[in-house]
Amino acid sequence: MGLLRQWTTRRERVAGREDAIERAVQYVCRAQAVDGIFPGMRSADPAFVEWSPSHEHYTTLVIVCALRGVRHPALGRVRRLAAQTLLREMTPPGLWRFNSAEVYANARYPWPLDVDDTALGSMAFRKHRLDLWLGRNAARLLRAQDANGLFVTWLEDSAYRNPVCAVVNANAVWYLGERPETAAAIRWLCRVAEDRTEQENMTYYHEPMHFAYAVSRAAAEGVATLRTVGAALVQRVEESAPAGEWTGSELGAAQALCTLVRSGFGTHRLVPALASRLIGGQSADGSWSAAPAWSARLSDAVRGIPDQPRLHWGSPATTTAVALEALALL
């Protein structure tokens, strides 16, 4: 009877996961606009109680990257629609900025071309474009390094400060891979993981798990040296779930689950708890709640303007895509 109960419980868990994935896929399809872009939310409130709509490229790039490993017949159209618009918005030889050409043209402080969006765009659409597959934008990205070999933020001169962000570096080496030109950035990411200094080195990210998520993704997809810090990343997950209970956002839970599986800890005791948290937290419409996926303070970025509150970007579609990624990894 005990074995039968275990088999039944496992079957129920698998069925619950498959149902959650199906409902989430349908939500993602509904959330995408006719032009292929996923609208985002911008707010000074990290809980997004009050927010305004945003249409930056970043939201769509994060979603398409998260969906890369989710196999579902409905998602092919989602990827194609996103590619149609964002490949038109691409600046040759494969560069992107945070917002659209229309927003850029009318913005008082337009965002320059940047390393983060370019790395994500290259990974999202490399199967759609031969120039991205061949990495023809790599030379331009590699010129965006400081004297220590770390990737800065911007790909062009601007009025903005040009800081080094750990997640931006992780995304850059995810795309560029392990090569002599990225060795310094990879060593630095390992030190940040081992020294537990990611919080002071994440310029544009709010979710504590974002560093572990980005580094483990790069490690699992070819940056072998980053695999040496897998245990340190898993420790971050453990510390964020005291007594085995996740206390952070649903986006963080999804990122934590991705980190465990990609770091080779797919049988970790927290995996069932994180999966249950996601499945139990799914809304009736198939989505998960918005949480800060990216954040910035314009007064920190642009020299000479008055102090302003930190703004956060996110959306239910963003959280849902990463939750889909996590459940599919199981």
Structural account:
With 330 residues, the protein is mainly alpha-helical. It has a single domain, classed as Glycosyltransferase (Alpha/alpha barrel). Helices cover 52% and strands 4% of the residues. The chain has a four-stranded antiparallel sheet. A hairpin with an 8-residue loop joins strand 1 and strand 2. The chain is globular and about 65 Å long. The two termini are 27 Å apart. The model has no long low-confidence stretch (mean pLDDT 92).
What are the main properties of this structure?
globular; mainly alpha; Glycosyltransferase; 16 helices
Helices and strands: which structural class? mainly alpha
Number of helices: 16
H/E series: HEEHHHHHHHHHHHHHEHEH
For this structure, the CATH topology is Glycosyltransferase
General form? globular
Mean pLDDT across residues:
92
Main beta-sheet annotation: 4 strands, antiparallel
In total, how many domains does the architecture comprise?
1
For the biggest β-sheet, the strand order reads 2-1-4-3
Helix content: 40-55%
CATH class: Mainly Alpha
- Calculate Rg over CA atoms: 19 Å
**CATH architecture annotation:** Alpha/alpha barrel
First-to-last CA distance: 27 Å
Number of strands: 4
Strand content: under 5%
Low-confidence stretches: none
